[in-house]
Amino acid sequence: MSLATVALLALVFSLLVHDWSTLRGKNRRAFLLQIVVFVAGAFFIAFPQRATELAHFVGIGRGVDFFLYPVVIWLVRESLLTRRLRMLDRERITQITRALAIAEARSFEIPSAVARAEAPPS
Amino acid sequence: MPIAILMPAYNEAGALARALAAIRDTAERLGGATVFLVDDGSEPAVGIDILPAPSPHFRLVLARHVVNLGQGAALETARQLALTSLVEPGFEAYITMDADGQHGVEDVAALARAIQDGADVAFGNRFGTSDVPMTRRILLRAARWFEQELTGLHLNDAHNGLRAFSKSALELVPIRQNRMAHATEIKQRVSRAGPLRIVEVPVTVAYTRETLAKGQRAAGAIDILRDLLQEYLFGEHP
Question: Which of A14, A29, A37, B215 sees the fewest Cβ atoms within 10 Å?
Answer without folding.
Answer: A29
